[in-house]
Structures are given as structure tokens and as C-alpha cells.
Amino acid sequence: MVAVMPESPLLTVYTAHNCSLCDDVREVLEPLAPELSLRVEWVHIDGDPELEARWREQIPVGVLEGRRVFKYRVNEHQLRLRIARLRGNP
After folding, report:
1. Residue 51 belongs to a domain with what CATH number?
2. CA-based radius of gyration for the chain
3. Which tens digits make up the pLDDT trace of 44-63?
């Protein structure tokens, strides 16, 4: 059986307040998400000990459908390729 990727894959971005790299990632993703039919969930790790322990040294970090696809900075071209692959387009 072949797994079918949803039309709108979910990208979870772990972020924190006062994070300039997080702001940079947001500037890339906000216009890109609608174009790629990408759902973006912003998760602030501030105040959550478990999330802080797991992600603090890597933020911002993006997880696309359960797989980490970037940390610190998002490469638009690479993200486009990963989404295309998820949808079965080479």
C-alpha cells in the first residue's frame, strides 16, 4: 500500500519569543505556505520544560509531517523539494 500525502502537509515550527532567527523563518514561510498549500503550526517552547529541553539549542526548527527539515534557517528551495517528494512528485 502506498501512503498518500495530504494536500496540505503540516509543518510544525518550534520557536521562542525574542528570537531573530525565528522572525527570519516566519518572513520566508508566511508567503510560501499559501502558495504550497502548507499548514504551518507555530509552537512556542517558552515555559515548557520538555520542549525547552528538546528544542532550545536548535530553534527555529521545522518538522514536516514528523521529520525535521530545517534548523536555524529555512532554505526555500529545499523545502519546496521536500514537499514535492511528499506529494509523490520527483
Report:
1. 3.40.30.10
2. 13
3. 999 999 999 999 999 999 99
C-alpha cell at 57: 539549542
2: in domain:
no
φ and ψ of 83, to 5 deg: -65, -40
- Number of folded domains in the chain? 1
- Tell me if 5 sits within 8 A of 86, measured CB to CB: yes
What's the pLDDT score for residue 6? 54
Residues above pLDDT 90, as percent of the chain: 81
- The set of residues, in sequence order, having a beta carbon less than 8 Å from that of 59 and lying 6+ positions away, is 14, 15, 16, 19, 21, 22, 45, 71, 72
74 found inside a domain? yes
Q: pTM of this prediction?
A: 0.87
